[in-house]
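User: We ran a pulldown and think these components assemble together. Before we commit to crystallization trials, I'd like a predicted model of the whole complex to look at. Sequences follow.
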Amino acid sequence: MVVEQVVPVFFLSDSTGISAETMGNALLIQFPDLIFARRLFPFITTVEEAQRVVAILDAAMDGPVTPLVFTTAAVDEIRAVLLTSRCPIIDFFGLHMDQVEATLGVRGMHVAARLHGVGDIQRYNNRMAAIEFAIEHDDGQSLRALDKAEVILVAPSRCGKTPTTMYLALQHGIFVANYPLVDEDFESVDLPRPLRKLRERCFGMLTNPQRLSQVRTERRAGSRYASLEQCTHELRRAEAMFRLHKVPTINSSASSVEEMSTLILQQIKQLKT
Amino acid sequence: MVVEQVVPVFFLSDSTGISAETMGNALLIQFPDLIFARRLFPFITTVEEAQRVVAILDAAMDGPVTPLVFTTAAVDEIRAVLLTSRCPIIDFFGLHMDQVEATLGVRGMHVAARLHGVGDIQRYNNRMAAIEFAIEHDDGQSLRALDKAEVILVAPSRCGKTPTTMYLALQHGIFVANYPLVDEDFESVDLPRPLRKLRERCFGMLTNPQRLSQVRTERRAGSRYASLEQCTHELRRAEAMFRLHKVPTINSSASSVEEMSTLILQQIKQLKT
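Assistant: Here's a predicted model for the assembly, 546 residues in total across the polymer chains.
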């Protein structure tokens, strides 16, 4: 029997550490057979805190497995302290900042990132407004404001509209409304009346019948609503409707929320240009 | 008058491009005086697509401003094509992958990341479940399930509970419930009854009175609810309550959703260890 070794992983930042985690995890995902024990040290803003972190890293260096350390610290004096660790450190900021500065011919500020900072505040407020919009229009609760939405996700109940809506709102500030297709919408192949003038903003979502039936069973076990027959029927009708009206379609059983959101963003950018 | 030059920025990926954007933007935020025109090329999965992107990059190279190009392409043959561009390319993957492989003593897979892939599926499903939980428990709609929440955000109405709830759910799979403080909760300094046994999971949120009044005015202009006096009163009472019961407090007027979420995550990790 092979004893699984756990690789300690540290993410260091003078800000939230989101970039260090995102980029570090994008590398770690390439090693699906290894087990990682992740630890985040965000908001390292003083030399003393940096020294405390270095002591923890150096202690980890004495363990059985060499740790991986990722840092995005932007403040030069903090980074300098962190790099005194005996651990090999992957410095996403230092090296690349040199490259960026060389290309731009300008020196960057080298300060801890404040997402709330001036310049991004409008983008930030827009994201917050988009979240509110998403919640107010979750599952067609308010049809009146559909025309304010930049994107309308159209699908039978429980196909995964809500997480995609929230992701587009929270990460990209896109105003997204949901339109749940119900029995009466399937009586004809026409688009539901409230969507007819808004077809260009609509994205259809589908999934596979087994998965839909399973998700609905968690809600209402044994119901007609959750039956494989009903799920198959609704998905077929929805697919036919989307095809007839040339509504672009994404499949939530085959793609993650991030992938679906990226596809939707690409499509709306094309429409705008 | 200085003519503002726009710097073209390209994010390239064989997956969603989220890592390239996150890390690239973390560098660009260090240049607040420059204007960037960002363009994302996700899902570059064939040599032909890579060649098409290289042609676009090379055309941009003939423009007035040298473009910045960030890539996280993981597939060797795709990356090799991209790196044939005349543009200087910041390759977050190639260089760091070598470092990670050297530290681990293992070669990575060098495949396009699939967030939906095996291994992450449990984490993914947990995030989706957390989103649903958040929506069901948004603004105290369902108090019964408060005890299922890992985190309970407690605040007067419109202090920013919802976006933080959604962020923690969507990005970290944390089950978060909201508890809005209303007039009757302020009649005593006790914690509201449903929260008394759950104090350790509570996080108080505050903001400044001017900002709260402004946000509420957008909802109900001229109401007592939106008045500066009422907002000041509620925030003072809430702050006193949090202090008395040692509920950790975050301020949404001073921190972004990402920063507040990071603080909350750190705190719940400390409680667990």
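Chain B touches chain A through 74 residues (CB under 8 Å). That may be worth checking against your pulldown data before setting up trials.

User: Thanks, that helps.
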